[in-house]
Amino acid sequence: MSKLPLLGVICNRRDHDGGTGQSVNHTYLDAIATWMNVQPVLIPAHRAFTDTQSAGNLLSALDGLLMTGNRSNVHPDNYGGTQTPEHPPFDTSRDAVSLELIELALTRNMPTLAICRGLQELNVACGGSLTAGLSTQENRLDHRTLEADDHDSVYRARHMVTFVKDGWWHKLIARAQAQVNSLHNQAIDRLADGLVADAHAEDGTIEAVYKPDHSFCVGVQWHPEYQTGENHLSAPLFEAFNTALWQASAEK
After folding, report:
1. Most C-beta atoms within 10 A of its C-beta, which of 15, 87, 125, 147?
2. Active site residues
């Protein structure tokens, strides 16, 4: 049997009854189990992985990197912004680990998939900036997470995205548009050099990016790991990511 590629999955700091721990929503692990044939490895958002040597040693054991979403936002100090009441909540430990890992992964041409917060981290790691408080900005859709008791309602498709003609997504699924869910109130402001905007919401919000000079570097603002309703995007995205990991593993 072939050895399964190892996929690093970033965690988030989370308070619980016993103190502070590390967590990843099972929706990500379920998506990996459903559409990929890899072994997930959870990466703690802890200061132990914030130095280049430690992060490099970790990545040397992996074949790909999944940057998950979370309710926390990237701190504006990381992109030269000024904190406002719209910016929190924060997870600065995750910021430090994620930005270090992304920079090294891109240097090593490691397959990388960045989801929601992960997309924003990718843009910041590449030199871009973010904007907070989308719901209060004129002519913007309300992208915030719905307050509901069940996942199906929270993750239901809520708005349309339009893919750039002949871009990464257009070539993957041969569709010009699709419905996606929306669970964020922060988004890309200045797109980083080297990233290409590949999908936009009706209000102009960048909903997907890719790095054309990279083997596989894709970021999406929606949550493909769990979306209810019509969904043409999750399976092809994770299957393409799976192919990239197997190729990276074979080339080691």
Report:
1. 125
2. 116, 223, 225
